[in-house]
From TrEMBL:
InterPro entries: Ion_trans_dom, TPC2, Volt_channel_dom_sf. The keyword Ribonucleoprotein does not apply. Pfam families: Ion_trans. This is Two pore channel protein 2. Coiled coil: none annotated. It comes from Phainopepla nitens.
Amino acid sequence: GAGAENDLYINQAIVFIEDAIQYRSINHRVDSKSLWLYRWYYSRTCQWILSLTITVILALAFIEEPSSLTITSDVRYRLPAWNPPCGLTESIELLCFLVFVVDVSVKSYLIGWKEFWKNKWLMAYILTLIVSLADWIVSLSFFCKEGVRIRRILRPFFLLQNSSMMKKTLKSINSTLPEMASVVLLLAVHLSLFTMFAMLLFARTKGNQQDKEWVVYFRNLPDSLTSLLVLLTTANNPDVMIPAYSKNRAYSIFFILFTVLGNLFLMNLLTAIIYNQFRGYLLKSVQSSLFRRRLGIRAAFEVLSSLKEAPASAQQACVSVGALLQVLQKAEMDSRCKQVIMRSLKICSCDQLSAAQFQKLFEELDKDGIKQHPPSPEYQSHFMQKMQFAFGHPYFGYLGNVVALANIISICMFLVMDADKQLSERDDFFLGAINCFFILYYLLEVLLKILAMGLKRYLSYPSNRFDGLLTVILLILEIATFAVYGFPHSGWRPEFMGLLSLWDMVRLVNMLIVFRFLRIIPNMKFMALVVTTLLDLVKNLRAFAGILVVVFYAFAITGIMLFKGAVVPLGNARYSNFLQGAQNSKAGFTGSCVHIRPVISCKSSNVIFQGKKCDLMVPAHFQAEVIYCLLYVLSVHLVCRWAKIYFVAWWLISSVIWVNLFVALLLENFIHKWDRRCQQESVSDIEYQRTVELMFRDVLEEPTEEELMEKLHQHPHLQLCR
C-alpha cells in the first residue's frame, strides 16, 4: 500500500541524488528491483571488480608472447623470456570476457530497450565483445600459434567505455578535429611545397661527391618528405642542413624559412586553435554535466513531493525536511557535504522545502573542497608556549631550508672532488659524517615541529608528510649503514657486505637528501602555484591520461603485429648466433611502448638508418637493436617504406594532437588559478581542492525550471504526478 509506495519514492530519491553527485544520467529503470540492482552495480565493490578486470586484461600484453618478462632489453645479453603455455592467458581472458558480458547485460537491462538503441557506446561494447570472443575461439583452434590477434588491439576499448569523463573528452576531441584539419592541411601544403623546393634546390649534379645533401636527405620524394617532416620536429636540426651549408652558406636561408614558418607560426597556430576550440567543447561537456546534476536533484525533489505524507492543501509541490533527512542518511555522498546539508536542515525554521530551497541545499556539491587543518595544542606551561612559538614560526622552517641547502652544497662539493677518482680511491668518511650530522638535524626539526604543531596538525600538511617520511627513511638507511659498516672513520672503505655496498648506501642517502630539498616549494608562492597546478592536472585530468594509455596500447600492439619478424638474418657467420637469439626473443609489449614513447617529445625522429633502398627510423637508445638493424637493413626494404606511415600517424596523434590538448588544459588550469589567487582567503589553515567541473563553474549557465521539467517528462521510466 502507501508504505511500499513511499519506500519506492525514497529509494528513487536516493538513487537520483547519487546520480547527481556522480554526474550520471537518470534515464534508467526506477522500479524497486531495478533500483536495488542499480545501486549494487555502482557500489564500490562492483566498480572495483570491474576496474580490476580491465587492469588484468590490459596487463596480459606484458606476459603474452612475445613476453616482456626480462630485466634487460638488450638482445645480446638477455635470457630467453618466459612465454606462458597455450591456454593460460586465454583462460584469464575468458574470465575477463565473462565479467564484461555481465557488465554490458546489466547496463543494457537498466537503461531499457528503447534507450539501448540510442546508446552507441553500448552497441560498440557488445560488438567489441563479439569480435573478441570470436578471435579467442580462433586462437584456441590454432593452438595459440596464429600471427594476428585482433582482440589485443580492442582491449583499450574496455578502459575507454568505463569512464564517462574519458568518453566526454573523446567526444570533445572528435568535435575539435574539423577545426584542426584546416591547420593540418595548411601544414601539409607547407611541407609539400618546401619538399618540391628542396628536390629542385638540392638536385643531383655532375659531381656526385659534392651532392651529399642529395645523397643523404633528398634523393627522392619519400626521402625528401621524411627529412623535412623530421625537421619540422627539430629532431634532425642542424644535421639535415650541414652538408648544404658546408657547400654554400646561403642554403641555410631555405632551412631557416622552413623552420620559422612551420615551427614558430603553423605549429603554434595549431596550439592556439586547439586551445580555443577544445576549451569551448569541453565547456559544453561540463555544461551538460551540470545539467545532469541539476536534473538529478530536481528528479529527487519531484519523487519526494509525491510522498503520501505531503500536505494535500499545498498550492505548490514541497518536500518535508524529515523525508530529505531520511534520504541523506542512506545516500552515498561526501561526508563534508552531507554534514553541511544536514546542519542546514536542522537549523531550518520551516518543515517543508520548495523546489528552489531544495536545489539551493545541494549547491554545496558545487563548492570548492575545503580542508581545515586541526588546531595546535594549547600548553599551560609558559616555557612550552615559548617553545611552541619559536618552533612553530615560519622562520624556523626557513632555517630548515637553509640547512637543507647547505647539505646540498656539501654533496655537490664532494661529487666534484671525487668525480675522477676510482672507487677504491674514495674516502667516504667526511661525506658520511656530514650526512649523519644533517640527518640528525632533520630528525630534530621534525620532532620540534610536532611538539609545536601537534601530530595531527603536522600530518595535515602534505609538505610535512613529505619531509617527515623522507627523514624517517634517511634515518633508517643511516642506522642500517652503521649496523653493517660501522661508524664513519678515516679510510672508511669497507668491502661489499649485505645487499648494498657502502658506496651504494651513500649514493642512495644523497639522492634522498637532494629529493628532500623539494620541501622549499611551499615557501615560494609562484613555484607553489605552478606545482599545485600540475598536481591538480594529475588528480583531475585522469581522462587525458586514460586516452593516452588507450592510444599507447593500441599503437604498441599494432607495432608488435606489423614488425614481428620484419628483420631476417642474412647469414653473417660472425653474428649468426647473436642474431638467431635476437630473432627468437622478439621485442615484447614493454619494448614496443618504450620504442614509440620518445616520438611524443620528438627526440628520436632523427635516427634514420640508411641501406641501399631503405630508411629505418629507430630510437637512439636501443643500442642492441641498432646493431641488429644496421647489419640487416637490406632485408626490410618493403617493410620500412610503410613503417614511416605508422610512425608519422603516431607522431600526429601523440605529439601534435594530444600534447597540444594537454597544453590547452594546462593553460586553462593555470590561468584559472592565477586569476583566483587573490580571491581566496590568505589563511594557511585552509586548502582549496578543485575539480574540472569547478574550474569552469564561473562561466556555466544554470538550467531553467522549464528545461528541467521538460526533460523529466521525457524520462522513459518515470511517471510524474504533475
